[in-house]
Specification:
The complex is a heterodimer of chains A (366) and B (76). Chain A has 366 residues and is mainly α. Chain A has 15 helices and two strands. Chain A has one domain. In chain A, α1 packs parallel to α10, α4 packs antiparallel against α11 and α4 packs antiparallel against α14. The chains are: A mainly alpha (366), B alpha+beta (76). At the A-B interface, β2 and α9 of A face β1, α1 and α2 of B.
Chain lengths: 366, 76
């Protein structure tokens, strides 16, 4: 199968599984939401105490384990890291907070639109705008520096955390929090959700599916390759929503969403910019972390901590709307990312020495 | 001599951005791009093919791949 078909099939599978997960218990338009699910895991572990969003979502460890299996089978598992881990933590932190101001990661943004939630249109516009800003930095040579091979033990951490999370979910000890009402209480059966997660992990690893990459490559190099996956997710999810009577067209009364257009736009701008600087959307960070990419794992941990902050300090939105603190955090996130983008571009010359082939080139030896 | 681009260890899409810069800097000739992960290998190869260049991917060596790109004389 050629690469183009792989990414379309992967998108179609992700779209279909998302609707199956909603049909079997996940919250509306939330078959898969990397941000919401990491937020629920943070809550289940007691890192935040918002009682309605606490559950160990098995989809997330599924993504990581599925990616690990696919990468190992293809000989692509490689323990690596060391490309500005702390900056990646900060980027992951603010990507999460901004996602929770919008109420969804880029994948859920597409799923929301596929469910008829028109608020997602402003999110997509903002997301594309943030990505466009990111491409300006990329064109100026933005980089967080090179990663290098690392001790194999690093690559085992995320798969082991994933297994531990599944064990905690199955054992359900008293110190783990499980929502009794609200989105956290709504979930597909454990085995189904875990299997779906693993399948998504496998197909996303093979296809390199990335929601941010789709729009980024369209803008930067006019390549629709990854965007095809984006479209496939939307098309299949929208079709299945229509067929199963889940499609609900409009702005008001959408599941786990608010109607504040300006902040839907701005928050997803921050997510888009952050995703470009990280080199991929939250789903892609999970997938890379399963392949042995320690930098993506740090971004994941930044997202986990960001989720805890979002609910401990009232930054996350709710269907009632955006909070003042959430608006402030979004703007702070934007400022931090612009600074990281600017200095990452300014320092690009240092990071990539210009030696090679006897003439000045874009990249040199390490 | 071929223009060389070392894109090892760089996140998406920096290998492609560097390749594009190298391709834009010459009117014709060879470019060798060194990458160390399969996603970058696919992205760089696809980008060069889409730009009308011929592409050859070398064997994996120490976890890295050399992508040889030949740019023909015309402006792409």
């Amino acid at each position: 199968m050629n690469q183009r078909r792989v990414v379309i099939v992967a998108g179609a599978i992700v779209g279909a599984l998302s609707i199956i997960l909603v049909a079997t218990g996940n919250p509306g338009n939330m078959g898969i939401c990397v941000a919401c699910f990491i937020r629920d895991i943070a809550g289940a572990l007691g890192l935040h105490r918002a009682p309605i969003v606490q559950y160990i979502r098995p989809e997330i460890p599924g993504f990581i384990i599925g990616s690990m299996i696919a990468a190992m089978a293809a000989g692509e598992f490689k323990t690596r890291g060391g490309s500005s881990p702390l900056l990646r933590f900060v980027l992951g932190f603010f990507v999460m907070i901004a996602s929770l101001v919008f109420l969804g990661c880029p994948l859920r943004m597409v799923l929301r639109l596929a469910g008829g939630d028109l608020n997602a249109l402003l999110g997509i516009a903002g997301f594309a705008f943030g990505i466009w800003i990111g491409t300006l930095f990329l064109k100026r040579g933005f980089t967080l520096g090179r990663s290098t091979a690392m001790h194999k033990g690093n690559g085992a951490v995320m798969p082991l955390i994933s297994i531990a999370l599944i064990a905690l979910l199955v054992a359900a000890p008293a110190f783990i929090f499980f929502s009794e009402t609200g989105p956290g209480s709504m979930h597909a059966p454990l085995i189904l959700a875990l299997l779906a997660g693993i399948i998504v992990g496998v197909v996303a690893q093979r296809s390199r599916l990335c929601l941010a990459g789709g729009i980024r490559d369209l803008i930067l190099i006019r390549d629709p390759h990854l965007f095809n996956g984006f479209v496939a997710i939307f098309a299949v999810a929208a079709l299945l929503n229509l067929l199963t009577g889940r499609f609900q067209f409009g702005f008001d009364g959408q599941p786990v969403a608010h109607t504040d257009g300006l902040w839907n736009f701005l928050s997803m701008s921050v997510v888009g910019l952050g995703a470009v600087l990280l080199g991929g959307c939250p789903l892609r960070q999970c997938i890379l972390s399963g392949e042995g990419d320690g930098d993506a794992a740090i971004a994941f941990l930044g997202m986990l901590v960001g989720a805890a902050f979002a609910h401990n300090f009232g930054l996350a939105s709710s269907p009632a709307g955006v909070t003042g603190a959430g608006k402030a955090a979004t703007l702070i996130g934007l400022a931090v990312m612009l600074a990281i983008g600017y200095f990452g571009a300014v320092n690009a010359v240092d990071a990539l020495s210009t030696v090679g082939g006897g003439k000045k080139t874009a990249g040199g030896s390490r | 001599m071929a223009t060389q681009v070392d894109a090892r260890g760089l996140s998406c899409p920096q290998p492609v951005v560097l390749t594009k810069k190298a391709m834009d800097s010459i009117t014709s000739g060879e470019i060798e791009v060194l990458v160390d992960n399969p996603a970058a290998r696919e992205n760089v190869a696809r980008f060069a093919r889409n730009a009308g260049c011929s592409v050859e991917i070398g064997e994996e060596r120490d976890g890295s791949y050399v992508i040889s790109i030949s740019k023909a004389g015309r402006k792409s």
